[in-house]
Structures are given as structure tokens and as C-alpha cells.
Amino acid sequence: MAQEVRGVVAPGKDEPVRIETIVVPDPGPGEAVVKIQACGVCHTDLHYKQGGISDDFPFLLGHEAAGVVESVGTGVTDVAPGDFVVLNWRAVCGKCRACTRGRPWYCFDTHNAEQKMTLASTGQELSPALGIGAFAEKTLVAAGQCTKVDPAVSAEVAGLLGCGVMAGIGAAINTGNVGRGDTVAVIGCGGVGDAAIAGSHLAGAAKVIAVDIDDRKLETARSMGATHTVNSRETDPVEAIRELTGGFGADVVIEAVGRPETYRQAFYARDLAGTVVLVGVPTPEMKLELPLLDVFGRGGSLKSSWYGDCLPSRDFPMLVDLHLQGRLDLGKFVTETVGLDQVEHAFDRMHAGDVLRSVVVL
């Protein structure tokens, strides 16, 4: 039987969010209903609210979530009611050319639930953020979006692996292939950038240089594992990174802003044959211009990292285990916990740069 629950809905472009009663249908074939315990407030949710991703309003916001599987539809075998799971927005298909070549983290045909959740008041279909919609007491997802992890971890930290933290750690470890003794620079020290710093530290980088224009963020970056910081409002970051790396540049530079000017900084701040990883998300109108001779002459790799090139079934349990062992403190990413009725306030604090992550706890 369909259920009615509370959820946070963005009704229209730049309109304040509001709590609505939403209808969650019983799971169909390949689907699952998850009772949400916690969900991080990610910048992507703000982009949805502002109409920066699409105009498919109303949106059911929230996607960095963890909770317990309540029920599953026919054909679901990987998860069962009672499983503690982290939700992911890339449920791999197992059939596309990437999956059949053994590269499922590049899956070209990821999927979401077929059925739609609706507004109880009007019956209008909701568009769940990143196919999840987890600022709600319960949500409907494709079963492949549920990744079982050790239930000993707290939901408010586990859920962050569902987007920003995984994107940053994966940008360093999976995409950038950061290894022992490497020098790494991370440009942009928000949640994703700090996760890239933590991932680089975890991988054994000898030097991790954090770059930002906000001294508060640079101080937080040090707590995540940065060995050096550069305020790029006051200092040329390219020259600073070169100076800190013996005049050569970093082995890996991770751009976590998503702007042409910071990408150029990343490009010229890397060593010869070094790697640039773009994990910051640009907007459609942005253009990049680089001398093609420089692209050729400097060698190395220019990579984009989408969701940290992660495979949730592989990476989420591993990172949770590292957290429980005390080797990766995911709790550092949680600035505050809030209720469903405080999401708009959390957006304001995010915009002001006052938080690393607000987490909605249900």
C-alpha cells in the first residue's frame, strides 16, 4: 500500500522550499523503499532549487543519504528489508559496453526507480534530486541505488559518501591515482575539495597543498590532511605551488571549483607529465581556451572525475570500514545536524560559506 510521508520540496525556481506530504508507492520490480535516517545538504540540491540543473519542478530534494531498506519489489536480490544502506545516484546496469568491458564505474546506462512519487495534495509527479529525493522520511529508489555498509557507522556520516565526499576522495584515489610520495594540489576547499585532500592524505601523498580564497576553509583543509595552504586571493597559486614543489609543479592537481580560470591554474600548476583532475562542476556557458602546443608539450593527463569514478558496491563499504578503523574521519565533514524544517536555513549557511556540511537527521 502506498504511504504518505513528509518531504522537502522545491516548488519553483528560487522559491523557498517547503515541507509537503508526498506519496511513496509500493516498490515495483527492481525497486526499494528506504526509510531515511540522515541526508546531507549538498550544493547540488541548491542548484536544483535555483533551476540550474533543469526546470522539472517540483523537485523532491536530497540525495546524500543513508537509511534502512523497508521493502523491495520483485526480482531484488542484492538488498533486503532491514539492510542498512547508503544511497547512490549511479545504479550500474551491468549490460552496457562499459560494464561488459569490466569498467562499471563508467556505466553509460545508470538507472533510477521507474515509478514516481507524487504530491499528496494534487497528485503532481515529483522529480527526485539525482533520482533519489531523500529529504523525506521515506523514498523510492532503484534497488541498485542501495549499497549495504556496516550498520555500526552513524547514518549522518555514512550518507555523505552518497555524493560529495565520495566525489572528492574518488577524484584523488580513483581518477588521479594519487600514490605514496606524490605531491598533490587541490584548488577549491569546499566539501569535495576537502574530501580530495583527505583522499590524498589517505593514499600516502607526501605533500598536499590546499588552495582557496577563504582562510576559514584553508584552516579546515589543514585538519583534513593538507600540509600547506595558499590563499589565492593574495598569492599567485601557480607560482606558490611550483615554489612548494621544488619549482616543478604538483604530480596531481585536483580542480574542485569548476571554473575556466581555476582550471587554467590547475593546468599550469602541474609538473611535466602530471595529471589534472576536474571534479568541480562547470555551468553550460563556460568555455576553456588553452594553447594546444602547451597541451601537447606538457604531456601527462587531463581527466574529468564524475562521482569520483566510484563503484559504490566496492568503494562505500571500504570507506566505511576505514572510518570505523579510525583511519578516515568522516565525522570531520559534518558541521551541524538539522531537521527537515531547517533545510532553507542550511542553504543560507552553505551560501555564506559557514558550513562544510549540514546534515538533516530524521
Task: Describe what you observe in this structure.
This protein has 362 residues and is α/β, with parallel strands linked by helices. The protein has two domains: 3-162 and 329-361, Medium-chain alcohol dehydrogenases, catalytic domain (Quinone Oxidoreductase, Chain A, domain 1, Alpha-Beta Complex), CATH 3.90.180; 168-306, NAD(P)-binding Rossmann-like Domain (Rossmann fold, 3-Layer(aba) Sandwich), CATH 3.40.50. It contains eleven helices and 18 strands. The chain has helices at 43-49, 97-100, 155-158, 164-175, 191-202, 215-224, 237-244, 260-268, 292-298, 312-324, 343-351; strands at 3-10, 18-24, 31-40, 59-60, 64-72, 84-87, 118-119, 127-128, 138-142, 146-148, 183-187, 207-212, 228-231, 250-255, 270-278, 301-304, 336-338, 358-361. Strands 3, 5, 6, 9, 10, 17 and 18 form a seven-stranded mixed β-sheet that branches. Strand 17, helix 11 (343-351) and strand 18 form a beta-alpha-beta unit. The protein is globular, with a radius of gyration of 20 Å. The two termini are 22 Å apart. The mean pLDDT is 97.
Task: Set out the fold topology.
Blueprint: E1 3-10, E2 18-24, E3 31-40, H1 43-49, E4 59-60, E5 64-72, E6 84-87, H2 97-100, E7 118-119, E8 127-128, E9 138-142, E10 146-148, H3 155-158, H4 164-175, E11 183-187, H5 191-202, E12 207-212, H6 215-224, E13 228-231, H7 237-244, E14 250-255, H8 260-268, E15 270-278, H9 292-298, E16 301-304, H10 312-324, E17 336-338, H11 343-351, E18 358-361
Parallel strand pairs: 4-8, 11-12, 11-14, 12-13, 14-15, 15-16, 17-18
Antiparallel strand pairs: 1-2, 1-4, 2-7, 3-5, 3-9, 3-18, 5-6, 6-10
Helix pairs in contact: 4-5
